[in-house]
Specification:
- This protein is of the alpha+beta class.
- The protein folds into 2 domains: 79 residues, Glutaredoxin (3-Layer(aba) Sandwich), CATH 3.40.30; 108 residues, Up-down Bundle (Glutathione S-transferase Yfyf (Class Pi), Chain A, domain 2).
- The chain contains 9 helices and 4 strands; from the N terminus they run βαβαββααααααα.
- It has a 4-stranded mixed β-sheet.
- The model has no long low-confidence stretch (mean pLDDT 96).
């Protein structure tokens, strides 16, 4: 299948789910087309059904194939273009990476509710409610566990950048936006993710959205 893939996304400032597969595609140098639908607009509601049966983004179109879930898209990208590089090579580490990615995919509802992604937001006196604090503590524990396991192998959760890092990248952006304090291990991982050229490109796109005429 040689058709150039098309990734349908929402706003770069707000769409955490869009960021995850976008970051995997861009970081690994996969050639793809980006189609952005601005969230919560008449345009979005009028057009999203053309691209996603769930009515949500992201969605990946590759030839006749449609994949419309963030983690499923990452898995498809991994199998189609990355030769498995999106997950750790070692079996136990790969199982752990999939576990923490699935936990991110299905959990942390209070974190999402109280700290929605907004790349351009900066708060300095925000105090998350107790239920969000529990999610923050769990995320921090996951990052510490993964980094302890991969100590000396690289700067990311399992040494080199992979799908697990992409799944948690929007959380790093949330922590920056809401001024969440983390420990040195977590901060080092966040710094590595925030320094990725692909993530910097995403953030530049988020800034460009604000500058674009309405």
């Amino acid at each position: 299948m040689s058709t150039r893939p098309v990734l349908v996304i929402g706003d770069k400032n707000l769409s955490s789910w869009s960021l995850r597969p976008w970051l995997v595609l861009r970081h690994f140098g996969v050639d793809f087309e980006e189609l952005r639908l601005p969230l919560d607009t008449p345009e979005f509601h009028a057009r999203v059904g053309q691209y996603s049966p769930s009515g949500r983004v992201p969605a990946l179109h590759h030839g006749d194939l449609l994949v419309w879930d963030s983690l499923a898209i990452c898995e498809y990208v991994n199998e189609t273009w990355l030769d498995g590089a999106g997950w750790p090579h070692e079996r136990a580490a790969r199982a752990l990476a999939r576990s923490v990615s699935a936990e991110m995919h299905s959990g942390f509802a209070d974190l999402r509710r109280h700290l929605p992604m907004n790349c351009r937001k900066r708060l300095h006196d925000f105090v998350p409610p107790a239920e969000a604090q529990r999610d923050i503590a769990r995320v921090a524990a996951i990052w510490r566990e993964c980094r302890a396991r991969s100590a000396g192998q690289g700067d990311f959760l399992f040494g080199r950048f992979g799908i697990a890092d992409a799944m948690y990248a929007p959380v790093a952006l949330r922590f920056v936006s809401y001024g969440v304090t983390v420990g040195p291990v977590e901060r080092a991982w966040m710094d590595a993710v925030l320094a990725l050229p692909a993530l910097r490109e995403w953030l530049s796109g988020a800034d460009a959205e604000a500058a674009a005429p309405a």
